[in-house]
Design goal:
The chain has four helices and four strands. The chain is globular and about 50 Å long.
């Protein structure tokens, strides 16, 4: 292992899952973020540890600043530094026509797709700059 750490948001399935596996296969400690799908996150962690990789799972809603802070604090405490942040989490709920989309639908999308990226980047940058 190279001792580097990668945090991947939305890593319990899809592209995030593949990114987590790729970083682990290249020797990174991997933190698998999920909000729903704990079983899938645990499966990915198990896949990684089966081939000798190091992985942790962490439940956090990326659209919630406090959750983002807790996840980053956990990573810094566990691994001392974070070398890579992949802001992968994204949300597009349902297939409603645009005119039927509610303000709550838009708020959830903005919280995850825009604010989540800002929250995680804001929290991780001081550690990255320091290291």
């Amino acid at each position: 292992m190279n001792g580097k750490t990668a945090v991947i948001t939305g890593a319990s399935r899809g592209i995030g899952r593949d990114i987590a596996l790729l970083f682990a296969q290249n020797g990174y400690n991997v933190v698998i973020n999920y909000n729903t799908g704990q079983d899938k996150a645990e499966q990915i962690k198990n896949e990684i540890t089966e081939f000798g990789g190091i992985a942790e799972i962490f439940k956090a809603n990326v659209g919630n600043y406090d959750d983002a802070k807790k996840l980053i604090d956990f990573c810094v405490e566990k691994y001392d530094s974070i070398d890579v942040l992949v802001n992968n989490a994204g949300l597009w709920r349902g297939s409603k026509p645009f005119v039927e989309t509610t303000s709550d639908d838009w708020k959830k999308r903005i919280d995850v797709n825009i604010l989540g990226l800002m929250y995680f980047t804001h929290e991780v940058l001081p550690n990255m700059i320091e290291n």
